[in-house]
């Protein structure tokens, strides 16, 4: 442990000119799958539904700011903070009524589809490992819902309802992993292209409609991203 610490301290002294501020602007575009779609409609009683998994849509724009530390001419480590706006469309396809073993019939048989439109802010950390022009990033943080709308398809009609964030916590959680390749135009400025995958977890999302609804999401995201990067040049001695 002492040997590793000594190497890190020595590298900080030797490569002080190559360490410094890093800025990244990312625009992701991809799809999502609501892996465990759970949905409830509440009138006189609670009526539970589960849906079929269907691809949704995911995009947004994010900024990562932080510090890049050079290890040697091929490797560096970046510790970044992340703030991003995200927009997602999440589907609950053909909700199936769960009678929970009781001899009851579906009180809403004409409900054919439920779609959620989510505007969120994501705030977290994004430690990144850089090897030459390749980067590998792990993201962790919280999701702050800004505006959520639920659309119910009943027979041939569609109804829109405002959704509130319920439950114990006023936020959701996210985790993601991304891979990027940097195309440098100068020693410090680059265009980045890459791919990402991750999960978003939401607790209770409750509508203010009649009947009231409640949904819980475990969303898997996957897609591509394009970005702009400003970072110190650590590949020269």
The total of helices stands at: 1
| Oligomeric state of the chains in view | single chain
Structural class computed from helices and strand pairing: mainly beta
Form type: elongated
Tally of strands? 12
Biggest beta sheet attributes: 12 strands, antiparallel
N-to-C terminal Cα separation, in Å? 26 Å
The residue fraction in helices comes out at: under 10%
Average pLDDT: 83
Rg of Cα set: 22 Å
What is the H-and-E element order? HEEEEEEEEEEEE
- How much of the sequence lies in strands comes to over 45%
Unreliable stretches, pLDDT < 50, 5 or more residues?
A: 7-16
Textual characterization of the structure:
Helix content is 5%, strand content 70%. The chain is built from 1 helix and 12 strands, in the order H-E-E-E-E-E-E-E-E-E-E-E-E. Mean pLDDT is 83; it is low at 7-16.
In short:
With about 240 residues, the protein is mainly β. The chain is about 5% helix and about 70% strand.
